[in-house]
Amino acid sequence: MTSKIFDAIRRHPIASGILFALLLALVLGIPTALIPNPFYHRMLPLTGLDYFFWIATSALIAANIVVFVCRQTQKQSKLAWGGGIVGFFSFACPICNLVLMSIFGSTVLLTVLEPLRPWLGMLSIGMLSVSLYFQQDNKKCKSCENGVGAN
After folding, report:
1. % of the chain surpassing 90 pLDDT
2. Residue 130: inside a domain, yes or no?
3. Could you list the residue range(s) of the whole structural domain that residue 44 is in?
């Protein structure tokens, strides 16, 4: 089953990347209330940067997944994992997260984490972009060698 999914991703990397980005946008957007829903309510107002970092993080994580599968590398990027986690904190409501509220309290979250969110977003984009760059490592993918995809 998994090999069939990987083969489909390798045959259609652009379509797979778009599909992964949309799925990630849903998975990340619903619990952060960037997509309005009856289950989660955001206590801080949304900004344009929240939407920008949400879309950028979803797209870059999807690109990392597709490149990882197409390149058939055995190395998973710690930068990609870290960039995804940091990206989540850049657009998630800090005081809406029960785990963070339990550990740090609202005062620390609003005075420390909230002002850092734009910087976390930029750090996330940087980490995910560098991860994508290092996964490329100038090695042709197997589908490119067969003339199926582009390098």
Report:
1. 35
2. yes
3. 2-138
